[in-house]
Design goal:
This protein is an all-alpha fold. It is about 65% helix and about 0% strand.
Length: about 200
């Protein structure tokens, strides 16, 4: 049975089998190219209408998992790069930044669809804490003055189903895709969010 059914959107990753096939074709030994391709697919999925929110999340989850090893390697390469190698340093940074930006957008889009009651909402209700935790992680890693879509992401985070749902019980730690404890990031974002609501620059 096809994952997306007969009314699947017109997209190369509309079927889960094809999506997995395309992901297996990511360059195994060129992390910059692999992460660029993942970023391309995240952007493409984000601009395609017709995905049920649960199916959109499943695709993003597949891409997120496929990118982990590559983004970890590029982060290590970035930290080890001599500051005099400006071109390489910038290339690594831009690749990582663009990936986290599109990943945050993708998870944020799932939260927005959930908030609007889109088709497939009930199927991801129990996964919402994981989605929010991943969106927070991605946002924290790419908060930067060059990010032109910060206002839109803050609109999602300051909604009823994002930062406000955190009760400090550590559930986010269990679902963090990087095996980290994002509590500190959530607290930092809450403070930034409060500053923003009070008229700060956040």
């Amino acid at each position: 049975m096809a994952l997306f059914g007969s009314d699947a959107p017109d997209h190369p990753m509309a079927g889960i089998r094809q999506a997995k096939k395309l992901i297996t074709e990511l360059p195994a030994y060129d992390s910059i190219k692999a992460l660029d391709e993942v970023t391309f697919w995240l952007d493409s999925i984000g601009h395609t209408e017709g995905f049920r929110v649960d199916h959109r999340f499943e695709l993003i989850d597949l891409l997120d998992h496929a990118a982990r090893g590559h983004q970890r390697k590029l982060a290590q390469d970035y930290l080890a790069t001599d500051r005099q190698e400006k071109f390489r340093e910038n290339r690594l940074w831009n690749t990582l930044f663009n990936f986290w930006k599109h990943l945050g957008d993708a998870y944020g889009q799932c939260v927005e669809q959930f908030q609007s009651g889109a088709s497939g909402t009930d199927a991801i209700r129990k996964k919402l804490p994981a989605i929010v935790a991943r969106a927070l992680r991605a946002l924290t890693l790419q908060l930067d003055s060059r990010d032109g879509a910060r206002a839109a992401r803050w609109g999602v985070l300051l909604g009823d189903d994002a930062l406000a749902r955190c009760h400090g019980q550590g559930n986010c730690t269990e679902v963090c895709p990087m095996g980290l404890a994002p509590t500190a990031s959530i607290i930092r974002l809450r403070r930034l969010g409060l500053s923003r609501l009070l008229g700060g620059s956040g």
